[in-house]
Amino acid sequence: MASPTSPANDAWPRHAAAAVRDLRGGVRLAMDGVRLGIDRVEAAHDRMARIDPPVRGTRILRPTTGWGAAFYHGLRGTAGLAGGAMDLVLASVQASLADPPRERAPAEPSPTREAVLAVLNALAGEHLHRTDNPLAIATRLQRPAGTATSRVLVLAHDFGLDDLHWNRHGHGQARALAEALKTTPVHAQYNTGRPVAALGRELAAELQALLSHWPEPLQDVVLLGHGMGGLVLRSALHHAGRTGMTWPARVGHAVFLGTPHGGAEPQQVLAWLARLGAGRAAALLPLGRLARHRSAGMDDVIHGNVLAVDSRTGTSAPADSAAGLPPTLRTYAVAGAIGDGSSDGLVSVASALGREPGPHGTLPLADEHRWVAQGVDHMGLLSSDAVFRTMQQWLSA
Q1: Quick check: 111 pLDDT over 90?
Q2: Do residues 336 and 225 make contact, with C-beta atoms less than 8 angstroms apart?
Q3: Angle between the 228-243 and 196-211 helix axes, to the nearest 10 degrees?
Q4: What per-residue confidence (pLDDT) applies to 339?
Q5: Helices then strands, each counted (H, E), the chain
Q6: Of 128, 104, 122, 94, which Cα lies nearest the Cα of 20?
């Protein structure tokens, strides 16, 4: 039997408090779904009331007046009270389990939990962020414990994924690349359902705070983005340059793996998200309807947006063909190619190599800075030995 001070018993309250926090987020999301259901029933009622001629000669009163208004107001009030009461009870349980001294040592992330959260945020990230839901992923940087080196490798994950996906099939590409280049890996975590421009702005601020207080003199910073992560890194560079941040001057290299610089086909993106949610996250996919439309992050992947989009015109402004790419930066692009060789199953080769014009034009890259990984799909870019060797050669030069 474990003693009262054993690691298992010591870790339990912290894990339990985190689980209750997740439960609070799930309850809030469920109650948001209830309110959305009430809105839809009321809208259907209103449409019925507008039908002419009325059903069997009886005019249905519109729900905006009389008993109809009182009924729907009461439903919303009851839902609000029930949701608030459940949140209060769960918050009390969470507080009773929390132990600040123990929480200084964070628990190891659960791959299942992180994968489910990543898909949920990709679907309804804006809603989670806007409602301050505990399930919303905040933009942050995570570096491993231990001695820092003079070179830093910043890794940005793709749409609907999380930082744990850099380790696939026993191949830890991020760790292996960091060791080969003698760099310290720093993982960017963010809510991929939010606009790329917002994520880039927040990531730029996080990088400024981290790198300006780096414990070792910085010799080089390497940026590595997979899919949407490349767009987020471009946006962060662009915002940092516009606001006078100092960290971009330390960045010597940037590598984009399957980044949709020229956008991606909507059906391919939807199929990608369905594949990600086909496992343990499948039950959460209907909750994406709370967003009422495609998430902003999904739209930015589809269009290849790096900068903020004008809601009136649907275009990014200003039109900067090299948005987020300083001229001194040595930039490389890798595309995967499967099937007929035109795409990696999600992003076309032309888009990934920056040759397909997007909202910011094409990428001004030399041909030797572009490479196609034959027989490698979009996820395979994270575990391909050939991709690893190519990146190592580029970044060691």
Answers
A1: no
A2: no
A3: 60
A4: 93
A5: 11, 9
A6: 94
pLDDT bracket for residue 315 (50, 70, 90): low
Residues 131, 132, 138, CA angle at the centre, nearest 5°? 130
Smallest Cα–Cα separation from 237: which of 329, 126, 302?
329
**CA dist., res. 395 & res. 182, Å (int):** 11
Q: Which residues contact 297 (CB under 8 A, 6 or more apart)?
A: 122, 125, 159, 191, 192, 193, 194, 195, 196, 199, 228
- Using left for φ > 0, alpha for ψ between -120 and 50, and beta otherwise, residue 258 falls in left
Which phi and psi angles does 315 have, rounded to 5°? -115, 160
Q: Give the pairing type, strands 171-172 and 167-168.
A: antiparallel
Q: Which two tokens stand for residue 116?
A: 């489910």
Contact 103, 14 (CB under 8 A): yes
Residue found by looking up tokens 């994520």 in the block: 199
Average pLDDT score over residue span 24-32: 72
